[in-house]
Design goal:
The structure is a single chain. The protein is α/β, with parallel strands linked by helices. It has 43 helices and 16 strands. Strand 4 and strand 5 form a beta hairpin.
Amino acid sequence: MLGSGEVIGKLQKSWDELLDHGDESFVLSFPSVGGVHPSLMLKAVVVHTFDNKDGALSDSPVDCKITRDTDAGHAGLAKYLTCKKVSHLNDAVQHFQLVLDQCPVGHPDRAAALTNLAYAHLQGHIYKDLGDIDTTTSLFREALALRPQRHPDHPLSLYNLTKALTLRHNKKNTAADIREAAKLFHGLLPLYPEGTYLRSIAAEANGIDYVIGGCNKFPIDVSDEGIHLRRVILGFCPLGHQLRPNALHWLSQAVEARFQQCSSIDDINEIIQLRREAMSLHPEGHLHRGSYLNNLALSLVLRFNYQGKPDDLNEAILLHEEALHLRPVGHKSRDFSLDNLGGALITRFNKRGDDDDITRAVSLHREALSLRPYGHPHRDTTLSNLAAALNAKYYKLHVREDLNEDLNEAIDKYRESLRIKRHDHTERHRTLHNLSSALCSRFKQTEEHRDIEEAINLCQESLEALPSLHPDRYFGYMGLQVAYSSRYRVQLDPLDFLLAVDNFRLASRHPTQGFPERIIQVYNWIVTAERHSHGSALEAYVTFFELLDGHLATRSSIISRREAAAAFHYARSLPVDAAACAIRHDNLRRAVELVEQGRGQQWSLASRLKTPVEDLESANPGLAHNYLELSRRVSDAVQSSAAITDRAAADRAATEYWRFKKQWDAAVAEIRNLQAFSRFLLPPLYEDLRAAARKGPVIIFVANTYSCSAIIVPMSGEPRLVPLPSVVLVDLNNLKNRFARAIRDASIMDPLVPRNDLIVLLRTVWDEIMLPIVNVLQQDLKLKSHSRIWLCPTAAFTSIPLHAAHPFRTNRNRSKEPCLEDLYICSYTPTLSALVRSRQMMKKPVTPSFVTIGQGRPGAGKCTTLSVAIDSELELVHELVPATANRGTVSGDAATRAGALKALEENTWVHLACHAKQDPTQPYNSHFTMRDRHLTLLDIMEKRVPDAEFAFLSACHTAVGDEETPDEVIHLAAALQFSGFKSVVGTLWEVDDAVAKHVVKAFYENMFKYSTDGSVMDCTKAAWALNRATHVVKTKVPLEQRIVFIHIGV
């Protein structure tokens, strides 16, 4: 028998057979018990006894009273388990108690004595012949304490205590017992894998499954300990376990409750993953599929509210539709599906404004209300939902007078819901601020004073009911802002305006509300502050950029970041609006900081993962290594998620991204604790940005509805403002469109025909834009002729060839009036930070290697071939590059996507000649056309080539941004600069290959004009070489093809 007294078989060997093993251990096997074959490892030992006192063994197993009492106890227990006579149980308990009395604290056999006595008590409880379960539990707990981890009987003691705890829970329903049992099982199961005896008895109905069931009855606990317990329970339910769906459900419920308190994106991603799995375990036809569809849909709506991904909301509506289909008229849960689908449709209506959505939402909520008559426990919820639908319908479509009835009905429904909702109801605060919103809407129409007073009081009451970090406090602040603003418009009390601004501030900065809602609010704050010339406008702009930055960082792929930015299309002009606001406040330094912070945010986010850390490596190598490793992991997670189309896989990838992103944020915070790195990766200050002008002034062009101007960041001193009084935003947009037409018309004209339309436009650019700037450069800054300048256009300026500004006039002495490129060497930079970053990466010299990449015969169906022109250009470039520069060529069949990427990675200088296409709607799909597949902008961004120096892009549209987010400057040339090329020549529009070769030839002749060997190849000469080239080819190349090439970078 085992030490616990359970008979599992009888010894079939004689003593002689046992002694034949000598001193060697042997295995003694027993018949199957519960599908498992128990066995013991034994060693037989002969013990000699002596009659005389001197030779006796004092603790002989034969004569020891402890042994005799233990054997008697086991014998009595075995009889009790066979015939269930209480007298045998009492006999066993009596003997085991005698043994325990002989094993005081410190005795080596005390744990065994405790276990035997406790086990006898336990069996008596199981068969209801003993009543004191607390004593049993205490005995097992003391035995476990004497058998710590690594003790051979530690697992058995763990199991025994779980048995006692579950028995006591079954009798007394004490939550602490089942919690402790779950923790003990969590420690026990890893010690005994599947197939072992102890695992088989632990998995019985009264074991793990009982614990799982008991824990599932607990109220939701959002503490770390409570959620950990739910994870433990899920661990007890591997794939295929019948209780796994329940465990998934309750863990998701607990995490959702924590999300409602803290709004962590990690939580909502985990909820969706858990519910996706739970739904997958309930395929079509399963009785409970509707519930799991509903749960997943609700969590997707939660994430939509936090991140604003349209796919989440659309999927949620489809899931709700399926759930409603599974709950036809008469189904007991139809009212829930009606309400949930209606709520999702309201959310989509508020985003897209589709009348069909709100009409159906109202209909669904009315049907749900008919299923919840007076006295129904959820009638108050459906009343609020129907009121929300009616209020949304009125708010979006209130230009129609017949909708006043909707608003009045919404107010009535909210009031009824509030009357029947208990004061301690967890959703009461929402009804309060929703009613407040409806009353505000009516006040705007009727100016009835009591409506607005009640609205303010309701919002204040809703805020009083919520803790400081509750996500829904945001709606209270928002409601108060609307109420105070509404009252201000009627009564013109300045205090109301100040209170409205205060609540704008509180709403937009409430940390537990999702980014999209807060971004919308801060945009409204900006509009309000600008309209009333309020001093908080600058603060609002800064807040907007911070929130948008945080919002884009929640997206785990580069493409989804652009989609997220494009969703706020109405805020497209904010970078320049912010700069203009700072200009009006005579704060040019702040204007430079704001236009930099607001532009190129997607580049900024991506560049954080590629920031040079040489200084940090010197100061703290360990932190630098950790930061670089985490940056690599976050970057890899971003790249891997870009190609995922499966929703469940995308959710898993997002979770992985957020896990690394949280670690990355912690690493950055630790770096910022170092005194010299307090602004590590933060938006740069003017003192940081002025480094961009170290080699020449940078000119930032600012155009918005208020004014057009330029800010010159000089090599030293304060920034200079250059007003452009002759230019307004409408003129710039017209100029942009006229340039597009003139270029298009010129492309089909004879090369010898004058480009009169283009000349007129370039003269306008000179007179109205560049001449005022040149006057400041020459007269105020005393900038010498042929010095370098950098142009940093924003908004509408990005589509105008500023570098080609030309007066096209003759002086009185018949000399030609100089143009911009006669006076200065022009380059462009997408942002000041990009130029600073490129210079930082040039700290160490590298051995130059030059590769020409050409593809004139791309794969079938991609575009027409231009093989002869490409081959000719490659040969020309190859001849002009110094022979010592380690030259190479990738062309023809070798010029594949992979081949081109490899060449970009392995060479410091690149000349790329092929077809290129800028995608105006999805710029990350812009590409160079290779033999097999497109080499996309995204492909280039994902490469890190810190030693790269120069790239010449002899292809069309390589420096043109996209239409949706022009201030992001997303084009092929910028992608190459981002990946590591410090100096890039790109093109603004289509290139004529027949004449482009003249520019290419003149460029490289000037680039290497004073070079006798490859050791003096200098990428900083590229702007000068391009300037010289365009002058050299004036008689050979038409105007639009001379100015198509621009230089970007150092």
